[in-house]
Design a protein that fits this description.
- The protein is mainly alpha-helical.
- It contains 9 helices and 4 strands.
- A two-stranded antiparallel sheet has the order 1-2. Strands 3-4 form a two-stranded antiparallel sheet.
- α1 packs across α4, α5 crosses α6 and α6 packs across α7.
- About 15% of the residues are buried.
Amino acid sequence: MADQLTDDQISEFKEAFSLFDKDGDGCITTKELGTVMRSLGQNPTEAELQDMINEVDADGNGTIDFPEFLNLMARKMKDTDSEEELKEAFRVFDKDQNGFISAAELRHVMTNLGEKLTDEEVDEMIREADVDGDGQINYEEFVKVMMANNIWECTTKKIKKMKKKRKKKKKKTKNAKRNEKEMIPQKPAKLESRRTPSRLNLLCHRSPYCSIL
């Protein structure tokens, strides 16, 4: 798990870990785990922290070494990325941005963006998600059904492709409109009209009697 982290991330985690490793023995206490993680921008709940401690501190000695800490951070960051992708997926299908998607929309998601599922499987997923049967699925229900059926990775990847394709199409349309505008012939500049003097004006100009008119 830790091998998925970059060198910069490992250095950052090592620096934060060392701040709390007072005696330099390469360990921190389980009580300090939450403080270290929060200093790195992570905000685990008390329940999540307890799960992490139970997972790592198997012998119950109350300490965590750096390799164990790295594995915890790598797992936490992966979970955070997954959560962001799921939120993005939910926003795509929440058309009116009211915090819910309809069961019909979920059916469309499952059928067209997920695995190849039968109608019966889709119906079962909808029944699992829409517990109160109101025809609306909130974010928590959406996450539950996506994670339970292990198809969120496929869905989020396809959503990213859709967004990229949509963006490319929008750019192409914009360029086409600009080219079309450039091809429209421009009206020639309006020439200044020069009035030709009438014969009467010329005669008046030459005659001394015009000055008395």
